[in-house]
Design brief:
The protein has helices spanning about 20-25, 35-50, 60-65, 70-75, 105-110, 125-135; strands at about 5-10, 30, 55-60, 85, 115-120, 140-145. The protein is α/β, with parallel strands linked by helices and about 150 residues long. The chain has one domain (about 5-145): Rossmann fold (3-Layer(aba) Sandwich). The model has no long low-confidence stretch (mean pLDDT about 90). It comes from Candidatus Roizmanbacteria bacterium GW2011_GWA2_37_7.
């Protein structure tokens, strides 16, 4: 974010310390919408339409399922370059119950034919992927394993 003033972060009341530095250093480019996933997507879409690079971050189930229609109709169909970052695979958040299980996100994302998607297996892959996400003018879904 230091080298690219177009990058924004939009989250749904998540991060648990992971965004502390961003909040501190870039408070005007960090938006926490709370538990409002539809609004989170709408803000990301609006930012992208204004030429910004929005990274919309949430637990994968909340990122994909609750705002599904918005993703399908706008980000996918209209090819709006929102960068979706999903946290968690399978039962990474099993302790929080079924609402947090993400066993079928690959099948859900396959339906979005205009959204490039990646599930990196190694942490060392992520910097290169992020560089690609920042430079592409297309929508993107990146799934991160919870560590």
């Amino acid at each position: 974010m230091r080298t690219n003033s177009h990058i924004w972060v939009v989250t749904g009341d998540l991060g648990y310390g992971g965004f502390d530095l961003i909040q501190k250093d870039f408070p005007h480019r960090y938006i926490n919408v709370g538990a409002s996933e539809q609004s989170m997507m709408g803000i990301g879409i609006g930012l992208a339409l204004e030429g910004k690079i929005p990274f919309v971050y949430s637990i994968s189930t909340f990122l994909l399922y609750r705002p599904y229609e918005t993703i399908r109709n706008y980000i996918n169909h209209e090819k709006i370059p929102v960068k979706l970052i999903g946290s968690g695979r399978g039962r990474d958040y099993a302790h929080d119950g079924i609402s947090h299980w993400v066993d079928d996100d690959r099948n859900v994302v396959k339906q979005f034919t205009n959204i490039t998607s990646l599930w990196p297996e190694q942490k060392n892959e992520i910097p290169m992927i992020l560089e690609e996400i920042i430079t592409t003018k297309k929508p993107f879904y990146l799934n991160l394993q919870r560590s």
